[in-house]
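Q: Hi! First time doing this. I have a protein sequence and I read that you can turn it into a structure. Is that right? Here it is:
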Amino acid sequence: MRIELTSLFVNDQEKALRFYTAVLGFIEKQNFPVGEFRWLTVVSPDAPNGPQLLLEPNNNPAALAYQQAIFEQGIAIAAFGVDNVYDEHERLKNHSVVFNTDPTDVGTAIIAVFEDTCGNLIQIYQVKA
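A: Yes, that's right. Below is the predicted 3D structure, encoded as structure tokens:
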């Protein structure tokens, strides 16, 4: 068993695609119509055949309620590993990304949390040596 696909709800697929590719640096993997929405996935440029992140529309009332509740509680919906949180924090701030938590040493890792412009909080982390 392996993880090949995971998803997060977004309030605007086109906006999400721009943010996750142009700002975060992911690569668009799949993008095709499925009814009124799209099957839209991105992958890490370091693993183009690795796990895909599905940018899924939050048009379902339960999905929207879940997304809003998690955001309001300050919980990151996803966590992405980076080599250096401080460098990535600076790079993203230069793209006007809003951080809710600046780089913070939490013992075994350094974390930071930002808003993805599509209704989610995302954590980046660096495992300490």
